[in-house]
Amino acid sequence: MVKRLIEIVAGDNPSITIPVVDGDGVPMDLHLATCAFVVREFPAAVPELMRRSGAEITASAAGIVVVTLDTAETALLEPGTYAFALRVTLGSAVTTVCEGDFVVRTDTARVVTP
């Protein structure tokens, strides 16, 4: 499993690219896989964000998973550090392939009207 740091700005709609490789470092063929991306507060609590394979999370035969987050949804996240995990299901095998810290920064560019 790979440990990774993801940083976003609240209110942005980032696309997060996560390469998935096997134990030998070879990209995994994920075109038949189901993927789930979950963000939650420490300690493990109700998910703040969740994505499953479909329009907002895609997986390729080249071992690349792309997770797209929605602007309105990320705007609701309080600045701070959360935990995230990417789980891949391929056939009967379920594997957490990547996890780590998911840091949300304040949107300092946001225009505030009095």
Description:
It is elongated, with a radius of gyration of 15 Å. The mean pLDDT is 88. The termini are far apart. With 114 residues, it is mainly β. The strands form 2 sheets. The chain has a 5-stranded mixed beta sheet. Strands 2-6-5 form a 3-stranded antiparallel beta sheet, with no helix packed on it. Helices cover 4% and strands 51% of the residues. The chain has a single domain (2-105), classed as Immunoglobulins (Immunoglobulin-like, Sandwich), CATH 2.60.40.10. It is built from 1 helix and 8 strands, in the order ββββββαββ. Strand 3 and strand 4 (47-52) form a beta hairpin.
List keywords for this structure.
1 helix, 114 residues, three-stranded antiparallel beta sheet, single chain, Immunoglobulin-like, five-stranded mixed beta sheet, mainly beta
